[in-house]
Amino acid sequence: MDEEKEVQSTSEIQESDGEEKSPDILELLYGIMAKPAATMERLANRPPVGAALVVFTVSTIISTLVVARDVPFYGHGIPNLGALAGLATAAGLIFAYGGWFIGTAVIHLWAELLGGRGRALALFSAAGMLSFIQLFNVPAAVIAKAVGDWFSNMVSLAVFGWLVVLYVISVKTIYRISVGRAIAALLLPVIVTFAVIVALVAITVAAITNALPFLQQQFPFFP
Amino acid sequence: MKKRWVPVAVLLVAVISVLIALAMPAGDGGRRFYGSTRNIVGVIYIEGTITSGQSVPGLFASAVGSDQIIEFLRDAAGDPEVKALVLRINSPGGSAASAQEIAREIAKTREAGVLIVTSMADVAASGGYWIASATDYIMANPGTITGSIGVVMELLNMSELYDKLGLEPEVIKSVDKKDIGSSTRALTPEERRILQGMVDDIHRQFVAAVSEGRGIPIQRMQEIADGRVLTGTQALDLGLVDGLGNFNDAIEQAARLAQIEDDFEVYFYGQSAPFERILRWFGASIQGYGLSGRLLDTQLYRRLVRMPGF
After folding, report:
1. Would you state the pLDDT for residue B17?
2. Which of A109, A157, B126, B164 has the most other CB atoms within 10 Å of its CB?
3. Residue B146 · residue B112 · CB < 8 Å
4. Which 46-85 residues of chain B touch chain A by CB within 8 A?
């Protein structure tokens, strides 16, 4: 009974004078895991950008460190980048920040195109807080060294599914749209990007194929 | 909020996991962990046209520079853990000078006690074979194209084309033969004799190198060295290769000849940078030598990855 009350309190913390009290990082993180809809509602109203930045940075560093250790060499794939784990982590962090910013912008655009109205800052904060969920992959990656890759693959799949559900709830709550439109806002950017890449590759290959006879004629050394 | 311990616990478990991961041996299951062995078979790729100097990666064609291969060989020669090397050759040849530079370094590396086996891929002809002949053992695929022991110099006389285009090249030279081989005119008989002499001299060097490397009498080599290309099987019959097999067979043979077959690890010199992998995807065959290659193929780096804790 007490636990239920505590869960509910995530969205119902009130000061004695009636003014809503800002939950701290730990409360928000627990709320995202236990009561995501209510927590996202709170995030939509008061985006915790600072907290999201801290959570995203810490989560990304930890997640990257554990994989950077075993990143195989490019090319022939023999030694690992153990000695360069720090460098790989720094690079991973920079890319992660970029991905976080751009990903938020893209989803925000699609959510608005689909009729939603919400603050990009709220989605940005939500995405940052949701990065905490990827920490569940970290112990799985270590355990997998003993039991096999299947374990981390299974956990990664479960975490991915959980994240998708949480993202759908975030977009639905922040932009006040239906579940279907929230799913569309998340899926369409991926589908469109993939389609554009396929089209560009097809055009490039066609152009090179068409130009080959001419190039071979002009330059005998051309393969 | 009493459930605040939940995210704290998740974070704690993740941090402990990272610490455990960093304390564990790196690599996938220890198969490629270099701290666990003192016997290494190194692999050096020689792919593309061989030239002197630096490698030249490209989108549709590439050149492997002798400097890069020599650097790898010197690294191996100075590394007591490297007991054997496999040269993975996939090259139609290149300049004689670059082949000589690499062959010379191979000899030094062998003198340093490193056994060297050649693994021929699709093609290991001409300069590619020159290099291979300097190694201890040559393994080819039955369908490998090899041989082509000979020297060719191709010049293009474009004077008639210039006439048709209405172009009249002007050549100003201090001495008579400075523009020998120029595309603006035909060769004179004397110039032809000079260039033929050059080609013959390089051919003699080529034949002598192969004769010495393979232990084939020079008279016999002169019969074989008529420029013909051979399959791996034909080359085996002529004594130009020692065995037939694939890349893994060559690695095992190298370990066997170095008497480390019971305990050895494989180390690949010169890894491809991501951008070079993209070029490969577009059809280029290049030897990795980007920033990551420079960072990772140095002996210092190899020392680092073998240090305890890395």
Report:
1. 84
2. B126
3. no
4. 60-61
Please tell me if residue A220 touches chain B, with a CB cutoff of 8 Å.
no
**Do B79 and B212 reside in the same domain of the chain?**
no
Domain-ending residue, one of B192, B225, B258 = B225
pLDDT computed for residue B276 by the predictor:
43
* Distance in angstroms (rounded) separating the CA atoms of residues B137 and B256: 11
**B-chain residues within 8 Å CB-CB of A145?**
21, 24, 29
Chain B nearest CA to A150, separation (Å): 14
Range of the domain at B197: 149-225
- Are residues B140 and B276 located together in one domain of the fold? yes
Cα distance between residue B271 and residue B285, in whole Å: 13
pLDDT at residue A218, as a whole number: 66
Q: Are residues B140 and B55 in the same domain?
A: yes
Residue B71 forms part of a structural domain: yes
| Nearest 10 degrees: Cα torsion A11, A12, A13, A16 | 160
Tell whether B299 lies on the interface with A, counting CB pairs under 8 A. Answer: no
* B183 and B257 housed in the same domain: no
pTM score, whole prediction? 0.50
pLDDT at residue A67 tops 80: no
pLDDT score of A28 more than 50: yes
Condensed to tens digits (0 to 9), the pLDDT of residues A153-211 reads 899 999 999 999 999 999 999 999 999 999 999 999 999 989 999 999 999 888 887 87
- Let me know if residue B245 belongs to a domain: yes
Which of A74, A129, A145, A151 is the mutation pick for testing B, counting most B CBs within 10 A? A74
ipTM of the complex: 0.73
| Whole-number Å distance between alpha carbons of B21 and B39 | 26
pLDDT in the model for residue A6: 45
Statement to judge: residues B242 and B134 lie in one domain? yes
Q: Of B191, B225, B259, which residue sits at a domain end?
A: B225
